[in-house]
Amino acid sequence: MYKGSARAYTNIALIKYWGKKNEELILPMNNSLSLTLDAFYTETSVTFEPNQTADHFVLDGVVQDEKATKKISRFLDLAREKAQVNWGAVVESRNFVPTAAGLASSASGLAALATASNAALNLGLDDRGLSRLARRGSGSACRSLFPGFVEWEQGEDDETSFAQQIPSNDWEQDLAMLFVLINDQQKDVSSRDGMRRTVATSSFYPGWLASVPTDLAHAKSAIATQDFTALGEVTEANGLKMHATTLGAVPPFTYWSPDSLVAMNLVRQLRQIGLECYFTMDAGPNVKVLCQRKDEDALKQALSQHFAPERLILAHAGYGATVI
User: Fold this and answer.
1) Which helix (H) or strand (E) holds 39?
2) Do the domain assignments include residue 323?
3) Are residues 137 and 188 in the same domain?
4) pTM to 2 decimals?
5) Do 8 and 42 touch, CB atoms closer than 8 A?
6) What per-residue confidence (pLDDT) applies to 81?
């Protein structure tokens, strides 16, 4: 029997990943940049046993259906191939984050599974190798292996597509992110399906893709110089451009809800009165608000006038994936 357990935290992309150029290898169309956070995480254990003939996947105490288990099995096959082991496995995972609601549960989930599998099978993968393995389960999972600011290199093949931490002199410790939970239910259009439809049909997608390298350069410069205004502005603009591409898809769709727009407008109003904050959104209705740590209490108090306190979750810079 081989067993390993791990914890990994979610990350929120400041410069978005949206679209794949290789579905099988999960190679993205563009580089992305994220911040790993401490509010949401996944703990996963994986046990490989010689008498286990099939994989079993239990999420939050519920045995998962064939579709969900098949995705996990495909990922475990990659680890089994590296270890030259053909044993079945039992995967038990608990999400301390709503699943499939645009809060990056797949990132923390697959980063935790990759880390647990590496430990269980004694694969001995280094950071880059583990990042490449996690990427094959969920693209953004390769970023959740690392703390702080992380860049995912799009690469051209399996060897060259991986994530790595960006030096920041711990500036991320001065920042905070407030999650406005508009809806923690499973979304209608999955990230995977949304990306595929957008890349294939959106007339706005080429413009989005062409703008990302400039946005990425501005974000990295802002981190290097610890310029919060510059980082906030490019984060907000990049997120809005990404979401605009879904409106040009066929058929069009959006992840926004009416309350998403309320939250975004409130952030703009707060900026106008001197509380500097910026919003971003992933593939879901929930709004994430980037601010400086010194302003987090004022931001939360202001937003609590419009959203119930239990819908506001404060996060700070998080940790890399760890064996537990």
Assistant:
1) strand 32-49
2) no
3) no
4) 0.95
5) yes
6) 97
